[in-house]
Structure formats: C-alpha cells, structure tokens
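hiii so my PI (J.) wants the whole complex modelled not just the main chain, which honestly fair. so below is everything: two entries, each one labled with what it is. i double checked the lines twice but i was tired so who knows lol
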Amino acid sequence: MLEKVQADRKNKLQKVRELGVDPYGSRYDTAEPIADVLGRFDDDGEGQSADVAGRLTLIRDMGKLIFAHIRDQGGQMQICLRKNALDERSWQLAKLLDLGDLVAAAGPLQRTRTGEITVFAERLTLLCKSLTPPPEKFHGLQDVEARYRRRYLDLMTNPESREVFDRRTEIIDHIRGKLRGRGFVEVETPMMQPIYGGAAARPFVTHHNTLDADLYLRISPELYLKRLLVGGMEKVFEINRNFRNEGLSTQHNPEFTMLELYQAYADYEVMMEITEELISSAAAHIAAPGLVRRIQSWYDHGCEPGAILMWPGGQAGFDADHKAYKVIKSGRTVLPFGDEQVDFSAPFARATYDELLREHAGVSMFDGDAAREKARELGIDESNKDDAVVVNDVFEATVEDKLIQPTFVLDYPADLCPLTRRGDDERIALRFELYMAGMEIANAYTELNDPAVQEANLRRQLRGEADGETMRVMDEDFLNALLHGMPPAGGLGIGIDRVIMLLTNSKSIRDVILFPLLRPESQ
RNA sequence: GGGGGAGUAGCUCAGUUGGAAGAGCAACGGCCUUUUAAGCCGUAGGUCGUGGGUUCGAGUCCCACCUCCCUCACCA
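here's the output for the full assembly
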C-alpha cells in the first residue's frame, strides 16, 4: 500500500516537472512567520497581504477552490487556492499538491465567511514535493516507539513534542545566561579520556587506532574541571554529555547532559544558592505568560492568538491534555509534574541526610548495625557491604521517593564521597544532593583539595560496590595537579535532562532527548 | 535479568465462544468556488510482530523468540 502511494506521488512529481516546475524548490526568503501574520492581522484594515511558507497539514479540495492548512515552526494558518486567482500553471500545480508537501503562498489576507484568517493565494510556490504521506492528520503519530525512532515524524505532527524541545533550548539558554552573569566561563574538556573518573559508573570503552590506546567516554568531567581550578580559572562550567554504560529507564539514558561548575574560594553553601537560583528562575522563566502565548498559536489552528490566550487574574496557564503548565499562586512558581504539584520557588527545603534517615527509616547514619537490621527488614542484601553502602541503600529505599518538593539533602556519609572535603565531624562529607519529584537532580560538594587525603580516598575500595563501578581508578596526573595546590572550591553538577523533565511535565527522559537510545532495529 | 502490558492496512483503532479480516483518516477515479478532521458516489489497499504447535478450521488457544512501554532490580 505504501509503495502504491509513493508511486502515485512519484507520478505527480513527474507531472510537476512537466509543468516546468522544480519539485524540490530553491531559496525562498520572503515568507513571514505565520504567528506574526496572525498577530498583525487587523479586522478593520484594508489591503492586507501575506506571504507564508510551510508544510501542508490539511487539504480540502472543492474542485475549483482548495482550502489548505499550512504550518511553519511557530504556527499554522489557512490558505485558499482559487482557479481564477492563480495563473494556469499554478492552478495545475495546486491540483497536484499532497499532504506533507512544502509550499509557499502569497496574496491578500482576509477572513473567510466563517471567520478564519486566510491567505488568498495569487502566487503558489512548490518548495518540496513529499513522496511519503505523513501520519494521520487528526491523531498524529501516537505509537511511542515510532515517535522515538522517527523523531522527525513526531516533530512534524505533534506540536506538543516540538514544544518540549523548544523549552529545552530555552531552559539551557537561560542557565547559560545566569552563569555568565555570575562571571563563569564555559569550557570544553575531553569526552574521550585515557583514565575515567569523577563518578562511580561503568564506562564505554573505545579505541584510538594510531595511538593504539583504549579510551573511555567520560562518565564525568570533574577531574578535568578541577585541573582548571589549579590552573587559575576561578569560575568554570561545562554543559555537555556524559556517558554511562548502565541500564536504561525513564530516568536514565546512557548519554545524558550534565551541567558541572566549579567556583574557587566557595563552598557547598554557595553551590546551594546557585542551584536555587538556576532552577527556580528557569521555572519562573518557562512559566512566563509571554512564552505561553507563543506556544498557544500551535494549538490554535488558525484562530488568532489572543482568543485563548488571556488567562484570568493575570495567571499564565496552558493545558493540552498531558502537557500542562500553570502558575497557580501569585508570587510562587508551581508547576504540575504528573499527579504532583511542585513548588519551584526559592528557598528550597534543607535537611540533613541523618535527619531524613531517622525520620523515614528510623535509624541513624552513624549506626551501622541498626542500618543492617533495617536493610534486612527491607529485603536488601547487606552481606559483604561496608556500613556506608548499607546506609545508603536504606536511604535510597526509604527516603528518596518521599522528596517531592525541592529538598537539599546535606552532609553525606564521608565514606561515600571520596572527592569531598570532610566536615568538623570526620564521618560526614560537606556534600548535598537536591531531590525533586523523587528524582536526584543535583549533587554538589565543598571540594577536597588535600592531596594526601585525596590519594588515600582513591586507594581505598569500598566493599559492596560492583566491579568496574568504582571511581577508584588512580589518576596520577590529577593528584599531581593537587600537589601544586587547588584553591578551596565549591563544585556542582545538575542533571539537565531531569530538570527539563520537571519543567515540561515529562515522565520519561526519552521525551526530552531528541534521539534517545533504543535497541537498534534488526536487519 | 524478574513481573505486567502492547504489536491487526501508510496512520488511528475495532475484531464476541475458535467459524469468510473490518472502520475512520490517508490513497486512486468522479462531482463540487467559502471549507474547518469538508461532503457525496465509486475503487483499491493485509506475511494479523516472527517461527512452531493444537484443531476440520487460529487474528483469537498453547510454546518459543523479536521489539516497544510500564515496573522492579541495576544505577551518585
């Protein structure tokens, strides 16, 4: 069947050529964004005209009169093609158009009898003939696997999907702007590393032929960014991919985007302020009415923006089935995430690791025996694991999914944190993680800059960590760098994909990554 | 890897107890100059995920496998 449709379309393509028209178009830079056209239309104005370009999403052919919807990246509107308004060749061309073709139409701009703003074309230009029909015009592409594997079809037909990726870009731009405003410089450090480190994860391995050397795709940029602190770069950040050779889930993609930043002469308290500012301001930015208005034009199918856009009480809101954004309380930014309402307003709640563990598990992080008992009660295998690993297993099992509202968890068990400075109490590390909606979003510490302690930490193996998942791979050059003296510093990592999930109400990380990793299709 | 769910036309989906594979959209032919998922008349389109099995007969029942989704495990 598909072959037949493609053959029909190739026939039409040939007929287009016989008309002397290039079916693959060429430069066309006179078109105006559709959202702008709809926005400037004046009901009392006369002699208005427009020139728009985009993909045909709907065609209603009435013989000598054709109505069609044309969509560009910011909006959709109606065009009308009439036999007696076009020259003979253009009319022949109009009758050969299919859903999915890219065209441009120019002519007078008027409302139709039923009130829809419409370009009554006097010029029609074919920009690209489409040989494969688009998905169903009303339901769009629903099949989840197809949406991930053939993202171009998802983007073409599902505006709410495009919307998520537009927001992703806006959020990352916003974060970069905030960091630049604080005097941070963006750097790029190796993705391919001879020694991997900075996190506890299994790496991907690759090979450089000329050097005949195995290299690892980085699991973290941390050790390189700290070298830059040694070199005198006092405020650095990197937003880039990390690769971890681990399982896939709704919260894990093997390659994911991480923000890491380091600030000399700061500590984890400063990192908390920065985290709060980045995330709460990104949420406020993304919930701003101006953005909601622009988005709304996608759903409007040609009705003028403004008709649906004024929300009562100055609140911004947006509802399209599963993607909903709202600013609910004035002065606070509250966004829905699934069944939850998450309040992104600063300041975020703070609690120590030990307080939370006592509250939810009834044991102290300093009492290894009690933690083991609790672990057995929870069905966690605690044999052959060090106390700190058992404690953390209990923490993850009992506390994590309770942390829906933004919460800084402070002061981790020192044994879990080889790169972190100890507190006055040597058993704790000056580290926090930020949890939201039960997900780990950020991780930061007051950085360890004592080379002797750092070396000892890296040499010590913790029992209970799986083979190959330890960060204790000795990086002599990193230790040498510390011997030259690294300023006391705060370091922060934020999982960008998860932030995007929270701010776009996406329950799966695959919905915020354009091309998530799936099993390759066989044959 | 364990558990649960799904896979039927290009797309969105029905398919009863096992008894002749369906609808809408898209496509093709025809009518139609103000339609809104246009309408009307007609035509065509299927390896029912793959491979076995049970049966007179399998989209439907059984087994294995493939892919995706959810969940658990894994995972800073």
